[in-house]
Amino acid sequence: MSSSALPSWCKIHLDRISSNLARALDLLPSGSAFCAVLKADAYGHGIDRVVPLVREQNVSTVGITSNHEAYAVRKAGFEGRVIRLRAATQDEVEGALESCVEEQVACRDTARHMRALLDTGRLKAPVHLSLNAGGMARDGLELGSDVGKDTSRAVLASLGQNVRGICSHYPSNEPTDLQRNAALFQEQVDWVLKNSDLSRSDVLVHAGSSLTLVSETKVETDMYRCGAILYGILKPEWGFVPTMDLEARVVSLQDYPSGASVGYDCETQLTRGSRLACVSIGYQNGFRRYAVGRSQVAIRDRLVPVVGKVSMNAIIADVTDSPDVQVGDTVGVFGGGNVASITPATAERQFATIMADLCTDWGMRNPRVYT
């Protein structure tokens, strides 16, 4: 798709995704596997376009969260392991059977349901026992209590050798926190193995994300599950580069006198005669209203301030000091530009959130143009 007739769009750099993936694979400790996390439609980049890049570099495991993502991964030709990275409802489990999704389990009801699916031959994929291990308190089994240990025994009794993975998710990758939680996870893995018929050699023990991989803290894990690093969200100093630009266009240029109000509620008044550019992007497209009074965009390789409240489909940029700006010019809302660009640090400051949130939001709200 060409961007020429689009009001706003995400430019996706496929070559950068490939480069980031190669760098991430080079960081893997010897003997560790890699799971490419493709949830949220590959962080807003498009699963159908990212799966071929993953296959090219022989990554044999991907992580998803929804059935739609599982279908998309399989439709794109991926034949390796597909692991759901959260707990699933019983209906979700049944809906993903054809996609051969490896599910997480941490409660008795889910284990009983999976046992019934195994007995009828419908469930063919292995399952992963999910442990909290001082982690997110999200969907992992808490082995720090007698109730949790009894639940673990019941789950293992139901599913037996079909448990082929034990997993957790670290809530913090600060060195001290990470070392403590990683040690606790290994202790709990040992407990599970001692209290079941599972063999360590037959079980994939995995925890750790992109942040864990770049933490430079040694942890024991058979596999790292990484998403953010593929999309250039982390470690620019290590050569990882953002893979998405968000762009729009100047659709109008007008001159307004000093004292004129700008945007809703007349909260902004011009302190000088100004030339203002109307830009074809607003909160519908992910330019969040929180950014009012604190954001810039890049036009003609210069940063210019955004003034007035953000509208649904428009923002206003003050281009008084950029007299060469013209209607039709491309506006860099994120990335882009050789001299002036909106960097990840700038975007996170302007929109008061993390890049993973922004990329998934922008990629879902705007057409994607691939380079």
Structure report:
The structure is a single chain. With 371 residues, this protein is of the alpha/beta class. The chain has 2 domains: 14-233, Alpha-Beta Barrel (TIM Barrel), CATH 3.20.20.10; 244-342, Lyase, Ornithine Decarboxylase, Chain A, domain 1, CATH 2.40.37. It has helices at 14-27, 39-43, 47-56, 67-75, 90-95, 108-119, 146-159, 175-194, 210-213, 344-351, 355-365; strands at residues 8-12, 33-37, 61-64, 81-84, 101-105, 127-130, 163-167, 204-206, 223-226, 244-256, 261-262, 268-269, 274-279, 296-299, 302-307, 315-318, 330-334, 368-370. The N and C termini lie close together (10 Å). The mean pLDDT is 96.
Quick take:
The protein has 371 residues and is of the alpha/beta class.
Question: What are the key terms here?
Answer:
18 strands, 30% helix, 11 helices, alpha/beta, six-stranded antiparallel β-barrel, TIM Barrel, single chain, eight-stranded parallel sheet, Lyase, Ornithine Decarboxylase, Chain A, domain 1, 371 residues
Which SSEs are present, and which pair or pack?
Blueprint (H helix, E strand, L loop, with lengths): L7 E5 L1 H14 L5 E5 L1 H5 L3 H10 L4 E4 L2 H9 L5 E4 L5 H6 L5 E5 L2 H12 L7 E4 L15 H14 L3 E5 L7 H20 L9 E3 L3 H4 L9 E4 L17 E13 L4 E2 L5 E2 L4 E6 L16 E4 L2 E6 L7 E4 L11 E5 L9 H8 L3 H11 L2 E3 L1
Parallel strand pairs: 1-18, 2-3, 2-9, 3-4, 4-5, 5-6, 6-7, 7-8
Antiparallel strand pairs: 1-10, 10-13, 10-17, 11-12, 13-16, 14-15, 14-17, 15-16
**Proportion of residues in β-strands:** 15-25%
Ends: how far apart? Answer: 10 Å
Order of helices and strands: EHEHHEHEHEHEHEHEHEEEEEEEEEHHE
- The fourth-level CATH homologous superfamily of the largest domain is Alanine racemase
Q: Describe the biggest sheet?
A: 8 strands, parallel
Percent range of helical residues: 25-40%
Number of strands: 18
Q: Reading side by side through the largest sheet, how are the strands ordered?
A: 8-7-6-5-4-3-2-9
Q: Summarize model confidence as the mean pLDDT.
A: 96
Q: Output the number of helix runs.
A: 11
Q: Per CATH, which architecture of the largest domain?
A: Alpha-Beta Barrel
Question: What is the level 1 CATH name of the largest domain?
Answer: Alpha Beta
CA-based gyration radius: 24 Å
Number of domains: 2
Which structural class fits the helix and strand makeup?
alpha/beta
Shape: elongated
As for the CATH topology of the largest domain, it is TIM Barrel
Poorly predicted runs of 5 or more residues: none
